[in-house]
Fold this protein.
Amino acid sequence: MQKQVRDYTKLKLIVLSIFVLGLLVVAGLASYLVPYDPYVQDLSNALQPPDRIHILGTDRYGRDMLSRVIMGAQTTIYSALLLVVVITVIGSMVGMVCGYYGGILDSVIMRISDIFLAFPGMVFAIAVAGVTGGGIMNAIIALACISWPKFARLSRSQVIMTKNMDYIAAAKLAGSNTGIIIVRHILPNIAGPILITAVLDIGTMIMEIAGLSFLGLGAAPPVAEWGSMMSNGRSMIQTAPWVILAPGAAIFITVVLFNLLGDTVRDVLDPKQKKVNE
Amino acid sequence: MKHYILKRLFQLIPILIGITLLSFLLMHVASADAIDVMEQNTGGILSEEAKEKARRELGLDKPLLEQYGIWLKNILSGDMGESYVSGKPVFSTFISKLPATIYLTVASILLTVLISVPLGILAAVKQNRILDYIIRFFSFIGNSLPNFFVSLLLIYFFALKLEWFPVMGNTQGWKSIILPTFTLAIAMASKYTRQIRATVLEEWNKDYVLGARSRGVSEKRILYFSVLKASMLTIITLLALSIGSLLGGTAIVESIFMWDGVGKMAVDAITMRDYPVIQAYVIWMAIIYVIVNLIADIIYHYFDPRIRQEEC
């Protein structure tokens, strides 16, 4: 019975990984896959409802929505991935160093992370993006500023739990230097929880990047990005709802996929947690 | 208890200094070209002398730390400068828009409680049965929808197609708050239904429940008198903590529904590059957030008999 459950979870992980990889490949090769140029305007063809030529219709400049949604996948998904990689790497490194050495360095950095955590997430992101004047990179920086402390705290607490174990003491006695102890002995043991948090964060970050772009603080038009595409379509919601539905559904499906993947990764790596949740 | 509150208040000081310093530096970077923004907004071309004069008036020619000191003193006396756009004092504008945001936040929290508490408990009680799966399915969906998409969907169906509620504004009494409230509550309720379910289940699997069961106490009695009572504390704390993040999370929803609160004010200010307004928004939202979280923490300590005992 137990084995069956585990096999089923593994199968789920494989299937979901294939879907997510497929999505990443489509997003990565977007410029080769689009049926039409997502940036060429054709005003005579504006706001056409979905039909056989334009499966998802056209926007107010006559641009093919399907092509723009595919192109937008590249902007939105890869921005979110970049963001998650940056905060995971920086956050965990800071957390590991703090947890391992402790002392003044640890207190100072933890107080700094307290300050970032004291801002309600979106408020600070809005402020940073507003001051730096929008643009997708600035949106990523803004979200990175408020998101790294989570990973720093997570890895710090994990390191503190691990560093007094006997095998670490043994490694020290055997003459390993600190770098080797952190990378070879501590990191593999704390990577699980960090990876789970990182994968579960991708969906949230996609929504936040799209949210900032929706407010005009992320990707700027004409760049195809799901959030800004929806923002541009707002005024046409009554006459041409497909302009909003297409990118909206794209965000939703992508976030669902990444959230399912995150849940499954957690079930595989941390069966204890699964028992609590089910 | 008193000792604990004092300790927490003391810990608040460095955080408040951090918040203000960070906001100050952020705006300092931005306002290097504040004079240019003013020049653009007035439409005229200013002479170099006029620009210098404006810089002196804004105190931009003084050393950085001194500028921070002056600025902090002004803030503490409620003077946060004037809006570059409207010329009105920023602090009083912020205060005048705050009630609308609080109104929206409180309504969303209430709706979230109404949805997520019964559903979370129900899902836990019916664990791994069809109802549990249905509830978990919907909470998963709700968790994967960005709030700007939810608000546009609600506008499309309930305001444009069915015409039950106004599309935007906060002028039509209770009708105008329904859609923004639902937008915010759908995402939050999805999250909390899952957490409440997990909390109730965790409590349900504790030894004292087994003990009560073996003494022949009925399942219903265990649920209502023991499990729920013990879970409530966690649930209340979760909700109190979410007030803070919700206050900040209303910006997108406010600007979609043209809800005249501080979130919309901030988004508008960014478009106009009206830095004093953005600054006031960031600082005050952070301060409110920190204070609300502190109160939630204190409530948790006050009501949890386990922690209370440790304190004494």
In short: Chain B touches chain A through 53 residues (CB under 8 Å). The radius of gyration of chain B is 24 Å.
